Amino acid sequence: MPEYRAYILGIDGHRYIRVADFLSDHPDDATAMKAAEKLVDGHDVELWDRGRLVGKFDHEQGDPVSIVPTQADIRKLIGEHVVSAEETESKEPT
To answer: Which among 32, 55, 56, 83 has the fewest CB atoms less than 10 Å away?
Structure first.
């Protein structure tokens, strides 16, 4: 289960303060990102799920400037590039 946290960033780009009233139990990254985006008001915001950076929102652009792939994206990427052991064995010359 995700445990989201939002941080307001200081001028130097380092975490400044954790947003205490940010709900940590959003059902997925997209929902949590929409909630975090609302916090952007003259300062940058980072969204984390435990130790995983989910997104960073730039106060000047208003859009996420750096989004780490979601777990679903990673599974999809892995699935596209990993060949099962059975496929590998069937392709090896005998």
So the answer is: 83
Q: Output the CA angle 30-34-36, nearest 5 degrees.
A: 110
Reading phi first (left if > 0) and then psi (alpha if -120 to 50, else beta), residue 7 is in beta
pLDDT of 32 higher than 90: yes
- Range of the structural domain that residue 65 is part of: 4-91
Domain tally, the chain: 1
Write out the two tokens for 8. 């307001």
The SS3 call for residue 72 is: helix
- Give pTM, 2 decimals: 0.63
Question: Mean pLDDT, the chain, as a whole number?
Answer: 76
